[in-house]
Amino acid sequence: MNLKEIEALLEKFYEGGTTPAEERQLRDFFTREAVPPHLAVHADIFRYYEEAGKEELPDPEFEDYFLAEIDETPTISMYSRRRQFFFLTGIAAAIFLLAGIVFTFRNDVFLHSSKNSIKTEIAYQQAKNALAMLSANFNAGLDQAQKLGNFQMGLNEVQKLQAFQKGIDQMNKFSKFYQYQQIIINPDDQPRP
Questions:
Q1: Which of 10, 29, 169, 188 is the most buried (most CB within 10 A)?
Q2: In sequence order, which residues have a C-beta less than 8 Å from that of residue 183 and are 6 or more positions away?
Q3: In the chain, what are the domain boundaries?
Q4: Coil/strand/helix, residue 52
Q5: Residue 33 gets which letter from DSSP?
Q6: What is the pLDDT at residue 168?
Q7: DSSP code per residue over 61-81
Q8: In whole angstroms, what is the distance from residue 68 CA to residue 71 CA?
Q9: What number of helices (H) and strands (E) belong to the chain?
Q10: How would you label 54-72 residue by residue, b for 16+ Cβ within 10 Å and e otherwise?
Q11: Torsion of CA 108, 113, 114, 116, to 10 degrees
């Protein structure tokens, strides 16, 4: 067998496409003593396969015993005790919540008596009267608040007048400045006292 065929078989072997007969050819080639140096890295693999193929199990029933032990191994459940605890705790919490809601609203929904409806009607009338009195007083207070609004408008006008007065004061200062400037620039033009 020439080197090109061996290289092609090696490539096919590493891709997993060789037949048992082709693998035997590769094993025979690499187990002989004279292997080309560029293919020597592959020789160890085939020498290992050759030696491993010669080994025998010490007990011929070892495989049956091993498989029986695997089948007897207990399976581990996917749900741990912690997960089961959380699941049961969640169910208990839901039951307590539902019971709390039922007992809270039991008096209002299930045991509605006429005595409760009379008290409710009296409370409704008292609240209605209180709101009517509040509305009347609120409207009277609203009239007074409108008068305060007019007073506020007057204050705004006074503030505008104050701003106008500030402007006039500034102009007076500017006028005095202009007089002093004329005295400083042209002292000869001023009347003598």
A1: 29
A2: 190
A3: 3-72
A4: helix
A5: S
A6: 82
A7: THHHHHHHHHHHSPPPPSS-H
A8: 5
A9: 6, 0
A10: eeeeeeeeeeeeeeeeeee
A11: -40
